[in-house]
Design brief:
Blueprint lengths: L15 H7 L9 H9 L3 H7 L5 E4 L4 E4 L3
Antiparallel strand pairs: 1-2
């Protein structure tokens, strides 16, 4: 649902208003808990961390190497 409705790259992501508009299209999602989570940015830290590049470990036959983020 979010992937299909993602804003253009020039837009600053999913705005509060846009998320609350989309919630009406998903059965069972509309409710006070979702509305409150969006309004208070409850999951902001999770989203911020998930957008950061991660280190990838590659195991070879002799050693383990940490590759730099892409």
């Amino acid at each position: 649902m979010l992937y299909q409705n993602q804003p253009e790259e020039v837009v600053d992501g999913f705005t509060e208003a846009y998320l609350l508009e989309l919630v009406g299209e998903v059965d069972g999602l509309r409710g006070q808990a979702f509305h409150s989570a969006v309004k208070t940015m409850k999951y902001r830290d999770f989203v911020t961390k998930s957008e950061q590049p991660t280190r990838v470990l590659v195991r070879t036959t002799r050693e383990v190497r940490a590759l730099p983020p892409p």
